[in-house]
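Supplementary notes (optional reading)

For those who missed the lab, this is the record we used. Protein: ATP-grasp domain-containing protein. Length: 330 residues.
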Amino acid sequence: MILVVSHDEDHTRAVTGRLKAAGREVVRLDLADFPAHGGISLEYTATGEPVHTVRTPTDHVRLDQCRAAWWRRVRPFTLARELSTPRDQSFATSETGQAVHGLFHALPCAWVNPPTKDWAAHHKPYQWAVARRTGLTLPRTLVTNEPERARGFIRESGVGRTVFKAFMASADAWRETRLVRTEDLAALESVRYAPVIFQEYVPGVDLRVTVVGDRVFTTEIDASRTSYPADMRMVIHEAHVRPVTLPSPVTGQLLRFMRALGLVYGAVDLRRRPDGEYVFLEVNPAGQWLFAEERTGLPITAEVAALLARLDGQGSASDPGVRAAGGGMP
């Protein structure tokens, strides 16, 4: 059995559809079903193996034989409406987390990605520290909620040559990467409300590098002649997109970086400067790949499904780069 912990979105459907077509048993759990709309029962007796059962609006299954699991873009728990006080809501959320995440730890399966590793790797300061240790080049960066520090950084890098961006950009709170303009300087006092990422602007060509186990799929996205070169996500339809191959030393650095983070899957963003230097920007442990696959034909969906199928057949975490979940749950 292959467990998919995610909600119903296009990447999840693409992979689970391929797995089911190949005859694999796949169970998808959306954490937003628990505890209001889903059930969990963990039975332990004096003898015999534990029985782990979950019930959702669409499934009622035992997870004892799960050997491979895919953790992707999980959603928060949903509580019963009767729980109206913060105290009751906090208690119910905590107790549900103890049961559900404890179950995930107990399953004898390999994770893509291990939840604790995935959670930690979403934090950019941690990514940058690991990237530096593994030899990747980073742009000059400042994270601060101190307006004067931000002003000093911009003075040194230059207006029009500094970008600012958010740590997280979700669909319901989208914030693109922006170049600092002269008119933005008057708003720098608002930095005190929350830390902001400031970076030197790196001219060049974007590379979305999708790492699946030991396989590396690279898409070049040239947005330099588009209406918004500061953030290729805004102008992907205008950019020139093609599959490319990274130099072997860069590929090796990225694989070492992924293993240092404990990630099996990740979408890495690089910029290649005009002089050929590769600059690391970030890795998204649950990054999208379909937009690249559709434009290049790179078989990323097939590789994600194949990795999960191999792990399901092995019944262990022996595939290169794969680690069993461990440590504290997010």
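If you only remember one thing from this example: Confidence is low (pLDDT under 50) at residues 315-330.
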